[in-house]
Amino acid sequence: MSQDIREMRLFHSGTVTLLVLCIYIVPATVHGDVSSAWGEWDSWSACSVTCGYGSITKTGYWFNEEGVKTNETFVQHSGCYLDIKCPVDGNWTMWSPYSACSKPCGQGIRTRTRYCTNPRPLNGGNECMGAGSDQTNCKLDDCPPIPTNFDIETCKQPGKLWCKSKRMCVEASERCDRKVQCHDGSDESLCYKYGNSARGIYLPLTSMAVWISFILFRNLT
Q1: 10 Å Cβ neighbour count for 32?
Q2: Distance (Å, rounded) from C-alpha 176 to C-alpha 182?
Q3: Which residues cross the membrane (predicted)?
């Protein structure tokens, strides 16, 4: 003997909504006035997640002829949904390429960056661990020394360019000629735009002046 049992139940509790259609066959073995059969279902379990989509289960047990629950079980699975935004932990993007060396001569640095946007932390998720930037030393060339017995008075003459340190000067025509003359590299550093290549992008002085004028104009408008 067996029973064909059909159920359609709508469960709603708080933020959990569940529609279940149950169709199952319950076999029974009859021994005189006593039969073995499946017992009642347990209650549905809690949702397997704390947010979004998950699953729930309920279990039925087989009872023997003496009416004792056995280890034989029948488990039913169904979906569940909690209308709660799940936290999203932040993750780093890949490192950018290293920047150009920060100085045209002498000791400089190269920098690379990464961003906590892959994805961004959301809904209380964890921030990325670690630093968003990294630096390494670099040296493209040796800076030239201050000439022996250099006379600083010559820097007062027309056509001279003071080095940034004010300890020496060079010919003004030597600025931005792609050859370092100042002992601190300042005659070339003003013309040196740092990009992703090892030596950056060299800009003529006129181009640099146009670019600075454009930036000032944009900030004022």
Answers
A1: 6
A2: 11
A3: 201-220
C-alpha angle 216-204-179 in degrees, rounded to nearest 5: 130
Residue 156 backbone phi and psi in degrees, to 5: -85, -5
What residues have CB less than 8 Å from 137, skipping those under 6 apart?
107, 108, 109, 110
**Single-letter amino acid code for the residue at 37:** A
Q: What is the CA radius of gyration of the chain?
A: 39
Q: Residue 182: exposed, middle, or buried by beta-carbon count in 10 A (0-12, 13-18, 19+)?
A: buried
Question: Tell me, what's the pLDDT at 3?
Answer: 41
Q: pTM for this one?
A: 0.55
Q: What is the pLDDT of residues 56-108, one digit of tens each?
A: 999 988 888 888 888 888 889 999 999 999 999 999 999 999 998 888 889 99
Give the pLDDT score at 210.
54
Overall residue count recorded for the chain in this entry: 221
CA distances from 119 to 90, 94, 201 (A): 5, 12, 33
